[in-house]
Amino acid sequence: MVEIEGSSREEANWYVIHTYSGHEKKVKTNLEKRIDSTGVDDKVHRVLVPTEEKIEREDGEDKVVENKLFPGYVLIQMEMSDDAWYVVRNTPGVTGFVSSGTKPLPLSADEVEHVLAEVESKAQKIEIDLDPGDPVEIRDGAFKDNTGVVDEVYPEQRKARILVDIFGRETPVELELDQFEKT
């Protein structure tokens, strides 16, 4: 992120930039380099690609995957001026500002607050593609080769409570996420 001391953030607004989908991080890097090299770093304060982390199971292993909250868009906090607009607009991968015609539209204070709160909450929350009621097959541990049903998921502990049929009775068992697989 480009953080500037001594500049007036009160005059800066947040804008949304269109990018080629899948190039958001590259555009962010290019923007930060161009901002520094062209001398508009007193006008551009932050460049943000809102993301969330999710845990996905692939081939029986958990992988942390970073998903973009707004694919094809990058947020930028800047004081709009001709030179800053020119630098941002002519950065490789940027296709334009979200605008009404030719003039870029800043986000409202409520929109900015909502997006930043969403980014912060997603950064602290790990999502797992597992819901109560999902059938699972246990791959490891004392209940290996049994099947069960997800009763509750604990993403922070990377565990789940699975209901396993033992002697004709549903028994809750707490397992690590890598001990079972969704069927």
UniProtKB/TrEMBL annotation:
NCBIfam families per the UniProt record, alphabetical: nusG
Any one Gene Ontology cellular component term annotated for this protein: cytosol
Gene name per UniProt: nusG
Lineage: Bacteria, Bacillati, Bacillota, Clostridia, Halanaerobiales
Protein name per the record: Transcription termination/antitermination protein NusG
Domain KOW stretches: 129-156
Organism: Halarsenatibacter silvermanii
Described purpose of this protein according to its UniProt entry: Participates in transcription elongation, termination and antitermination.
Biological process per Gene Ontology, one example term: transcription antitermination
Stated family: Belongs to the NusG family.
InterPro entries noted in UniProt: KOW, NGN, NGN-like_dom, NGN_dom_sf, NusG-like, Rib_uL2_dom2, Transcrpt_antiterm_NusG, Transcrpt_antiterm_NusG_bac_CS
SMART domains: KOW, NGN
Domain NusG-like N-terminal intervals: 11-119
